[in-house]
Amino acid sequence: MFIRYHLFYYAIGCLLVVLGRFCHPIFYFVFMMIGLWGLWRFGWKYLSLLLILSGLLFLLPIHISELPSQLSGKVMKVSENYCYLKTDIGTVKLYHDEQLEYNDLISVNVKPLDMNENTNDYAFNEKLYLYGQRVFYKATCQKLLTQEHNPSFYHWLQQRFSNQTQIQDYQRLFLLGERSESIENDYQQLAQLSLVHLFALSGMHIHILVLGFKRIFGLFFQQFLSRLFSYFCLAIYIFSLPMQISLYRAFFVLVLYDLFKKWFHELDVLSFLVIVSLFYNPYIIYNISFVFSYFIYFIVILTKQRKNSSLLIYTSTLPIILNLNYQIPLISYLVSSFLTPYIEIFYGLCWLSVLGLWSIPILSVWISLFQSLLSFLDALTPFLNIAKPNFLFIVVYYIIYFLILYSLELKQPIQKYIAIMLALFISFFVYSRYKIYGEITMIDVGQGDCTLIRLPMNQGNILIDTGGIKDYDLATQTLIPYFRAIGIDQLDYVYISHNDYDHCGALTSLHEHFPIKHIVESYEQKRQIGCATIQMLKSDRIYTEKNDQSLVMYVQLPACSLLLTGDASTQVESDLSSQLQNLDVDILKVSHHGSRSATSSQFLNDITPSIAMIGVKKNNLYHHPSDEVIERLQRKKITILRTDQDGMFHIRFYGKSRYILK
Description:
By secondary structure, the chain is α/β, with parallel strands linked by helices. 48% of the residues lie in helices and 17% in strands. The protein is built from 26 helices and 21 strands. It has a 7-stranded mixed sheet with strand order 12-11-10-9-8-20-21, with no helix packed on it. The chain is globular.
């Protein structure tokens, strides 16, 4: 039979087609290799079915039509200021100020919104995140027309929750899979320690529930009926919850394998679910819950007969952990093994508490113990900061990993593969920090300035201005994740040109959450940092205008020189004219985001740059950059780089050469 025991290969083929379609064409080449190998190994029947499945998946249309002004549908997920609304045309992320509840039937007038795409490297991409959940639209509610409550098992559970906020938040997390803001800090600590999977509703929780159901029903029914009623109750619970991919996977694997285990093994069932998921939503490859849940269960199947199964499973997750956190908690494996039974009891106590079995006091003590333990682990755990793994690292890592599994299966020694894996980590660690090239990066911080200068061979990391956005922690949400993703552990110098919020607003948070050796906020004549020389220019005039008090910095690098003028006006440019004429300027950081108050024609004649960098927000209220300034730069045939159009951009220098990367 060319399906039984072969579904895994069909799933791999379908997955490669989707990756080729949405990620990189190189996956088509891998698909061809898999197809030729399958033809040689299994024959034409296998190849024919593989081509049919993959062809249908490749041609699968994804219709994203124009959003109408009025929508009707069911609320599928509720957050503080938005919900997911399932409508006839698809699911919509709807921002609102109404009192909506899960499962409500509503009709609303809406205004479509654009989905945000990441403009900085390694930043959160809202569009792909929503597409991964099959949410293809985003809108804001202008008027709620009708609302009809639709009670379900979900609401019954909510009504049974404790009145104590802390206990209720953990009941909500464990039983509904919803995270409240009040436990956000605990959740972030769990994420840093790579322990979130213990709290995400998944196979562990399903097996605890099934075991409980079977024991209860086993008191009254025979084994077959007990199992049937257990699955029925489990289905009612799972499909009453909003959008839990890992739960769906665990449920269907459990039920389908139980029903069809005479014909298919667990890997066949898992592969079938992968194929169905890809046909349902090809963008599901961007859903981290899908990737983590399905991949880890695949490893569980491969290693469940081995004594060191838990260590092999943990090892398989390291690239995923690095991809999410850019660091590895060195004792997370031990902590995870220790916490698993603790979490199982935690989960059981949450169920007992909603069933009214007087476990609230015990649950309260359990939560206090957990939070104390979490704080202790957070303070104790050492982290290995590496960087975000690139594609080559991931490919090589998993080739070595599966060679280890293959060798274990054949009972062959694995020491050489472990040594190669360690060498891979060391090489990537060194590569991420000791670049042979230097780089000037303008980070997109909206309407503000933030420029990172990374010197070659880790000679220094210099940040000039931090940007700042009110009501948004730019440091923890944008700057620090980027620094860690590229392997920067600390900033050697942070220069602040002046104290406008859009230039220094993120400094306080950055200093609190990330190591900074030196902060420079006042004039200093000259400083040597590795191969970079930073010289400040100053006139004899005293300025009362805050923008004109900006530090004007001239940075000399091996392959280029950079002039940064903060928000200085044409008056400052004129006062510094005699000094500027003596400078060799290759790159200009355009003053005041391209405002017409600066970057005069005379100034450009004085410095003659070849590249101009502008930090500015798209569609900003100030209409920066000015058309006049852009015209002046274009007349001089200066290459213009702007964050509102190019997002984050880099000017990389190597030896005496430089390159622009967008």
